[in-house]
Every structure is written in structure tokens, then in C-alpha cells.
């Protein structure tokens, strides 16, 4: 009987620990996001995955290009361009653009090209903490991190982190690395056309090139510049706190 009692108590302890595990994981994610409100991330999950991929292919000399710049040292044209290109409701939504999701579903149901509806907040969550690809598990974790980012960070911090971690080319991450790689200048000097070109490649930075823009990138660049003006130019950024 004593052995059974000890076994039962041990089993209950393990069950309690198992039930506590989701709580502990949730607390860890909250701590992660809270710390990154104040601490600039030195790397992201996407960067780590790309570096490991290169090493796995035997490319030991591969180096990521990434150099953090505070948003006040980045031309206002770039955050404006990525908002105009990817998330024009950024200042208004709380992480999920329900109207964009509805439109994307209607568009995709017609069986033409696939259109996404990810916000900048969702993309920031994905780039920082997750992996590429689909699946309900990744989407669920992305949604959780998006909620945390929107709850714990001001919008100004979200866009600052995004333009510093977004991939603008194979192994090229963030505004400063992109400005240096493609235009030979500092991120603070990016003009409207240059910023729009960088934003134009974001949907698929390994497929499209900011250095040698093809017809699609050229058309998309022109469209983004029009959108930048339509949403109010750099004055739009004053609505982001």
C-alpha cells in the first residue's frame, strides 16, 4: 500500500508539473517580448536559420549583413514605404487587420494569385521568434506573439524593430545593411524611390532584387511611391506613438 501511495503522489506531482508547463512557457514569451521593448535584438530566428542553412550547405564563409540603427537614424521614407506597401492600417489596427483578411479570403477564393493579409506586427513576430513556412501551429504561435507585441510595445517600437530585422535580400537584414548593400549609403540618406524599391522586394526578397529591379519591382516601386503620398507622406508617421 505504501508503495502505491508513493507512486500515486509521484504521479500527481508530475501531472501538476505538466499542467504548469504551458503557464511557464507563456510567462517566458511575455518576458521575451517585454525585454525586447527596451533591448535591441542582436539577431532573429530567421537570421539564425539562414546562418545554419549556409553552414549546413558547407558555406562556412557565409556572413549575414545586419547592423542595427535606431529609427531616428533611418530615413523616414523607409518606415513610410513599408507601411504603404504592406500595412496601411498599421496605425489603427491592434495586430490583425480584419478587413484585409476578409479581402484576401475573397480574392483567394476566386482562384487567382494568393494574397496574404499579414500585418507588420505579425511579420515582426514571425521574423523575431519563429520559422518560415505554414501550418496551424506556427500561425497560432505567431498570433500569440502578435498579441503580446501589440500589448507591450508602442507602435513606434514595432516599426523600428521591423525595419531593422526585415530581410531585404538573401542574408541582408535591416535598413542599414540594405542601404549599404544596394545603394552604398547610410540608411539615414534613403530617398523615397530607394525606400519604395526596398519595400517592393519584401514579399519575396530572395526572388526579387533591389540591386537589379526587374519589371515587377519597378512597377511595384512606382505604386508604393504613390501610396506613400496618398497616406499622407512622412506626416503619417506622426500618428504612430
Write out the strand line-up for the largest beta sheet, numbering strands in chain order. Answer: 1-3-2
Span between termini: 65 Å
Helix content: 55-70%
Average per-residue pLDDT, rounded, comes to 89
CATH homologous superfamily caption of the largest domain = Biosynthetic peptidoglycan transglycosylase-like
Quickly name the level 1 CATH class of the largest domain: Mainly Alpha
The main pleated sheet reads as: 3 strands, mixed
CATH-defined topology of the largest domain:
Penicillin binding protein transpeptidase fold
Rg = 21 Å
Please provide the count of β strands: 3
Structural class from helices and strands? mainly alpha
Write the H/E string, N to C. Answer: HHEHHHHHEEHHH
Which CATH architecture of the largest domain is right?
Answer: Orthogonal Bundle
Low-pLDDT stretches:
none
Principal-axis shape: globular
Beta-strand content bin: under 5%
Quick structural overview:
Helices cover 59% and strands 3% of the residues. It is an all-alpha fold.
Please explain how this structure is put together.
The chain is mainly α and 241 residues long. The protein has helices spanning 2-38, 45-56, 77-86, 98-109, 120-129, 136-152, 155-165, 175-183, 192-200, 215-230, and strands at residues 65-66, 167-169, 172-173. It has a 3-stranded mixed sheet, covered by helices on one side. It folds into 2 domains: 1-39; 40-239, Biosynthetic peptidoglycan transglycosylase-like (Penicillin binding protein transpeptidase fold, Orthogonal Bundle). Helix 3 (77-86) packs across helix 9, helix 3 (77-86) crosses helix 10 and helix 5 (120-129) packs across helix 7 (155-165). It contains 10 helices and 3 strands; from the N terminus they run H-H-E-H-H-H-H-H-E-E-H-H-H. The N and C termini lie far apart (65 Å).
Amino acid at each position: 500500500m505504501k508503495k502505491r501511495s508513493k507512486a500515486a503522489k509521484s504521479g500527481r506531482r508530475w501531472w501538476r508539473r505538466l499542467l504548469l508547463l504551458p503557464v511557464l512557457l507563456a510567462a517566458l514569451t511575455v518576458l521575451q517580448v517585454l525585454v525586447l521593448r527596451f533591448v535591441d535584438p542582436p539577431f532573429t530566428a530567421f537570421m539564425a536559420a539562414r546562418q545554419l542553412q549556409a553552414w549546413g550547405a558547407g558555406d562556412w564563409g557565409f556572413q549575414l549583413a545586419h547592423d542595427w540603427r535606431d529609427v531616428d537614424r533611418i530615413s523616414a521614407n523607409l518606415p513610410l514605404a513599408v507601411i504603404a506597401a504592406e500595412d496601411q492600417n498599421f496605425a489603427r489596427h491592434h495586430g490583425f487587420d480584419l478587413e484585409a483578411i476578409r479581402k484576401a479570403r475573397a480574392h483567394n477564393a476566386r482562384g487567382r494569385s494568393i494574397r496574404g493579409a499579414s500585418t507588420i506586427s505579425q511579420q515582426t513576430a514571425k521574423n523575431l521568434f519563429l520559422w518560415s513556412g505554414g501550418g496551424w501551429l506556427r500561425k497560432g504561435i505567431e498570433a500569440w506573439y502578435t498579441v503580446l507585441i501589440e500589448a507591450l510595445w508602442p507602435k513606434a517600437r514595432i516599426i523600428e524593430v521591423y525595419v531593422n530585422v526585415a530581410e531585404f535580400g538573401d542574408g541582408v537584414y535591416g535598413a542599414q545593411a540594405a542601404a549599404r548593400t544596394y545603394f552604398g549609403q547610410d540608411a539615414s540618406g534613403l530617398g523615397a524611390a530607394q525606400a519604395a524599391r526596398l519595400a517592393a522586394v519584401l514579399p519575396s526578397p530572395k526572388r526579387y532584387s533591389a540591386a537589379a529591379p526587374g519589371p515587377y519591382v519597378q512597377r511595384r516601386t512606382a505604386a508604393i511611391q504613390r501610396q506613400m503620398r496618398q497616406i499622407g507622406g512622412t506626416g503619417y508617421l506622426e500618428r504612430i506613438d
